Amino acid sequence: MSLVTRHGSCGLFLCVALLAITGCATSSGSSLAAGKEASIEGAIASIDTQPWTYDGNAVIQVDTEQHGRVAVQLPARWNLCKAEPMDVASLSIGMRINAVGTVLEEGGLVVCQDASHRLAPID
Description:
The protein is 20% helix and 33% strand. By secondary structure, the protein is α+β, with helices and mostly antiparallel strands. It has two domains: 1-30; 37-121, CATH 2.40.50.140. It has a five-stranded mixed beta barrel with strand order 1-2-3-5-4. It is globular, with a radius of gyration of 21 Å.
């Protein structure tokens, strides 16, 4: 075996090993998959209902241990949703909540598309 072939094999082995390690590090299961259903728990960091004034989605920022900060969107028109409406006035900063919804491309959740979707305080 020549010196070049030997070093080439070592380089290939090193590349494969690094790819395997990197793949393990990035696929920890903590990411939210766009288009899938997800459930999160955490503390409310902020509540923004301003978008409702132009039929946009209110955004509740939730600090979670597993996913970091997640934007939970609540529609302005609950009557078009399968989910039960939420009394946003009953929410407060720091309150622990559970949110179930569909994951958006940006990594947030929208609570609307299914009857199982919800945003509820944790007792």
